[in-house]
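Design a sequence for this backbone.
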């Protein structure tokens, strides 16, 4: 969809579709009682966080190779651990500092060519990672206040509001990259597909973060990095150079180290 519609508008349409679909399902399953917003301030933070992440990452993949943008966004586990310490008062372990320093060395390796080519916009995936980290922390604060379905509707509808506001501001900003032209039918269909698949993914993430700490869950999503790199290579011919590939491996290694260090002695070790 790059070049057909801006990332801000794609994100907004995706979340509008998601909010409508989730709202219908929520009404059928739980009735009007499901439309509650417990701990409203944290719900607003959840919506803002997902909007920030969506706008940043959707815009980033229009400008950068998809695999590299995704790799940088996977600093989220380290940022999550830091925010969990600051916001949730979870202990900040030595392993967290080690993983964070190592991961951001990988980020610098990937940013090397993109920063020279794109300038500060190359940091968009870092902003996306911060948004996702905030979402995971906020998920923890609202855990147990509603069903997984109602929580997903809440984040989708609030996120859609923030994304629509951002899209309008971008359109009238005078920046060509954010101008919103007429909606192509192909974009409409693709956004609907994204709404379904991403809403399912967010539901699984929410359920996971209510069962365990956010810093423990975040590294489990690294399969996305492998898929993004593979699709970027196969569909768009985006082949990372050796340094960028090494940077991605460093980020993954740091995330897995952080996850492994957080396992209790009674938990089984990760095996093939």
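Sequence:
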């Amino acid at each position: 969809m790059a070049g057909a519609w801006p990332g801000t508008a794609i994100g907004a349409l995706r979340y509008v579709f998601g909010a409508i679909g989730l709202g219908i399902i929520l009404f059928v399953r739980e009735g009007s009682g499901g439309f509650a917003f417990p701990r409203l301030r944290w719900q607003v933070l959840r919506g803002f966080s997902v909007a920030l992440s969506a706008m940043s990452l959707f815009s980033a993949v229009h400008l950068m190779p998809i695999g590299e943008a995704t790799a940088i966004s996977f600093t989220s586990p380290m940022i999550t651990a830091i925010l969990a310490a600051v916001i949730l008062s979870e202990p900040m372990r030595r392993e967290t500092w080690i993983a964070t320093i190592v991961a951001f060395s990988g980020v610098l390796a990937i940013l090397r060519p993109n920063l020279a080519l794109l300038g500060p916009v190359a940091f968009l995936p870092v902003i996306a990672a911060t948004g996702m980290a905030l979402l995971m922390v906020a998920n923890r604060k609202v855990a147990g206040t509603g069903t997984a379905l109602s929580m997903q509707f809440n984040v989708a509808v609030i996120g859609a509001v923030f994304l629509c506001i951002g899209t309008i501001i971008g359109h009238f900003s005078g920046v060509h990259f954010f101008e919103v032209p007429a909606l192509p039918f192909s974009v409409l269909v693709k956004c609907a597909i994204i709404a379904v698949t991403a809403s399912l993914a967010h539901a699984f993430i929410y359920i996971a973060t209510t069962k365990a700490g956010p810093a423990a869950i975040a590294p489990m999503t690294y399969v996305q990095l492998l898929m993004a790199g593979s699709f970027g290579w196969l569909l768009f011919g985006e082949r990372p150079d050796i340094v960028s590939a090494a940077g991605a491996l460093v980020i993954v290694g740091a995330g897995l180290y952080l996850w492994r260090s957080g396992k209790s002695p009674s938990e089984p070790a990760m095996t093939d």
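DSSP finds eleven helices and no strands in the chain.
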